[in-house]
Each structure stands twice: as C-alpha cells, then as structure tokens.
Design brief:
This protein is of the alpha+beta class and 290 residues long. It folds into 2 domains: 3-111 and 279-288, Diaminopimelate Epimerase, Chain A, domain 1; 123-271, Diaminopimelate Epimerase, Chain A, domain 1 (Roll). It has helices at residues 33-43, 74-88, 131-137, 166-171, 228-240, and strands at 3-11, 20-25, 48-52, 59-64, 69-70, 93-98, 101-108, 111-114, 123-125, 150-153, 158-162, 191-202, 205-215, 221-224, 247-253, 261-267, 273-288. Strands 1-2-3-4-6-7-8-17 form an 8-stranded mixed β-barrel. The N and C termini lie close together (5 Å). The mean pLDDT is 95.
Length: 290
Amino acid sequence: MPSYTFHLVNVFAESTFGGNPLCVFEDARGMDEAAMQNLAVQFNLSETTFVLPSDQADARVRVFTPGYEMRFAGHPTLGTAHVVRGSQGAGDALTLQFAAGLVPVRAQGDIWTLVPPVDGAPRTQAPVQSPADIAGLLGLSEDDLLDAPLWVDTGADQLLVPVKTADAVRRVRPDAGRIQEWPVSSLERKTAYVFAFTGEKQDGRDVVLSRYFFTKAGGGVDEDPGTGSACANLGGWLLARGHERPARVLVRQGEQVGRPCSLYLDVDGDGTIRVGGRVITLGKGEIHLP
C-alpha cells in the first residue's frame, strides 16, 4: 500500500493560524488524477497541490480544488515552493511548472515572492453585465463602485470590482440566490475580487482592503482568506488603469473570515508583477492509498 507525505502550511500568514491554509503532497509520483481529486475533497481546503518531477523546472505542480483542477493559483504556488525547498533542498530561488506556464519563485527567509505566468501584457475584458448589475449581485449599489468591473488575467482570469471605500468592501453580501446571473470566467468559474484603497500607508506601501468570493460546485458562495492570483490581477488592473509605477501595495484580506492575510504586491517600472507573503509550516503527515 503506497504512502504519500503531505504538509500543511499557512500562506500569507502573520500568525500560526492566520493566512490561507494549503495541503501539499511533496511527491505525488504514482498517484493518478482521480486520487488527487479525491484527496482535495478529503482535505476540503480551497486548494491542495501535488508535486511531480519536471524536465523544465525544479518541480511540476498540479493544483486541485474540491471541485476541479486549476491551471495556476497564487497561494498554492508560494506554499508549494516552501515545501519543495524543505523536501528537495531546492534553495531560495526556484521555478515551478504549472499548466499555465513556468513560475519563478524567490524567498527571503519564509517570505516567498512569485512572478505570475502572464505572457506579455495582462489581458483585460469588460464583463457582459452592467456595473449596476454586478454591484447588485454583491449587495452594493452602483454608487459604491470606483470604476467599472473588469476581467483581468495574469494567469487565471478573475473579475475585479474596485470600490470607493473600505466600508463598501466590508458591506459586500453576495446574493447566493442569483448565482446563475454571475459573470463566468474563461475557465467556467464565477468569482469576484472586491477591493478598495484605504488611503493608509504601511512601510511605504499603499494599503488595500480586499475580499474574494467564488461560487461552490454544490451551490452557494464562499470567501477565500487570501488570493495570490487575484492579487496578481490587481497588479494587472493597475497597469491597465495607468497607475504610477513602480507601485508598492500591501493587500489585507481574510478579515471577515477570521484568517487575516497580508499580501505584498509590487509592479515594477517595466510592468513586472510580483506577489509575495509569508509561509508558516503547521505540520506534516502520511496518507495511505490502496
């Protein structure tokens, strides 16, 4: 009976039980896709990752939610890199291979930073729904919006919804009864990343308050504590809106779900987007499969 070692880590965490939890299987050789999907259901976290050999990078990574496989995701990238460094001795600079492409990852201690797998400029597209309709789906009014919602893709396309105030971010109440009306991404997912610049600064960074919502396979709407891919798309939004560069942003997320997260977003002068955060190891164990 083969056994597989898994690690539990918290990503974008500033405390032991903060951040976004992740399960990483350090060596998934011999495990088929059905087993990966079943293990993602078993752990019931937003994502579970499986590390495999790669002839293009330090490791190939497959990312599963309880409902489907993802081409790329932010906190799984950083958390998996942390595990790969520990299990393979890969050092502080490594590259991970995802279905969406190669992702370089760097560490300073336990703070990891990625560059998303966008080929060229971030892709953007206006949603079919009107700004007023999208605001209504989130329990807001059109007057709460800072700008029109926009699809942004730096590796995984998501709907970005800029609002005027942190209060508006906190007031978001998605209407689960209107799931069929939610905008749908190219990956057939229904998500919304709501954010506001608070006007504060911390350590020279502009502070943003954000929340990320997604519809669940079985129905209803859930909220993610810390979303690296959406943070990267915020960098894409800054580029699309002609924001001054370089940009240095501290994104606060997870406040409403009791899992506070700190995400560091940098947009360099040449348009390179970087997303980073601290990874804290919680523990490890073994799974035995028939």
